[in-house]
Write a structure and sequence with these properties.
The chain has one domain: Mannitol-specific EII, Chain A (3-Layer(aba) Sandwich), CATH 3.40.930.10. About 40% of the residues lie in helices and about 20% in strands. The chain has a five-stranded mixed sheet with strand order 1-4-5-3-2. β2 and β3 form a beta hairpin. α1 runs antiparallel to α2. The protein is globular. Its main location: cytoplasm.
Length: about 150
């Protein structure tokens, strides 16, 4: 189901980022390039994270997002794995290995996408396999649930 919301252009594997701000910017690039978000949306993510680092939602996972009115024009989701984990300032969930960037233009259009993402993240094997993926094709197969077929 998650593959319905994430295309090959939305997957970034083994990225090297110097710090959390660089990781947020890199994870947002595919959405910026397609006009789904504006640069102001990325700055809002950074400002929100500086104010309260609640977006590191689980051990090793950052869900980067901002309010729709901060510059989101459509629904979008990117998944970026990091070559070297990055500290985001979360006492309980650092370091981060997976940066997920979510955009939505309103309060409801992203709900099915968020449900599919939650279902995916709740299966430890799926997450582990995704983090180990060496190619976008392999990552897409994992999202589709047919990596072993």
């Amino acid at each position: 189901m998650l593959e319905d919301f994430v295309g090959e252009e939305d997957i970034l594997l083994g990225e090297s980022c110097k710090d959390w701000e660089d990781a947020v910017m890199r994870g947002a690039q595919p959405l910026l390039q397609r006009g789904i978000i504006e640069p102001a949306y990325v700055e809002a993510i950074k400002a929100n994270h500086r104010a309260m680092p609640y977006m590191v939602i689980a051990p090793g996972i950052m869900l980067a997002h901002a309010r729709p009115e901060c510059g989101a024009h459509g629904v979008g989701l990117t998944l970026m794995t990091l070559r070297e984990p990055v500290e985001f300032g979360s006492a309980h969930n650092d370091p981060v290995r997976l940066v997920i960037t979510l955009a939505t233009p309103d309060e409801t259009k992203h709900l099915k996408m968020l449900e599919a993402l939650t279902d995916f993240l709740m299966v430890p094997e799926c997450l582990d396999n995704f983090l180990a993926a060496r190619s976008v094709g392999e990552a897409m197969a994992i999202l589709k649930g047919d990596e072993g077929k």
